[in-house]
Every structure is written in structure tokens, then in C-alpha cells.
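Subject: sequence -> C-alpha cells, single chain

Hey, anyone have a minute? Need the predicted structure for the following. Not urgent.
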Amino acid sequence: MTKREKLLERIKNNPKGVSPDELHQLLTHFGFAQRKSGGGSSHRNYTKDGCPYVLTVPFKKPLKAVYVIKALQFIEEYGNTEE
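Reply:
Had a minute. Here:
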């Protein structure tokens, strides 16, 4: 099991207390790109080709579980490991 697979399993099992950097690492692994936002932004926006939505995640530690669960749903539906 790779580090990313372990991280994904840990986040799935406990979506509370996830840091923005851990979620960023996971989303970029599955092909999501952080979209540029205005200077000093308090949120990160992620997009991916083939995904009609933008995932917005606040840059606050720790993240609320609702944002982590939404990101996991995006990964399930639009993510793939083929890069």
C-alpha cells in the first residue's frame, strides 16, 4: 500500500482533523488542479477536466468534515490514478 493509498484510507475512516495540505496532496494525486485565486485568499479552488464543478475548500486548520467528505465524493466520481 502506497503512502497516498494509506492517506486516502485514513481520511475516509476519519474525515475530522484533516489538514488543508493533506487534502491538497490527495486531490492533486487524483488529477485535480488548484485554480488561481485572488491574493490572500482564504479558500482553495480545485478543478479537473471532465468535472463540471469547482470544489472550494477553506484554508483553515483543521478542516470541517463536511469539506473533506465533499472532496472524497469528488475523488470517487471524477478522480482517477492515471496521470
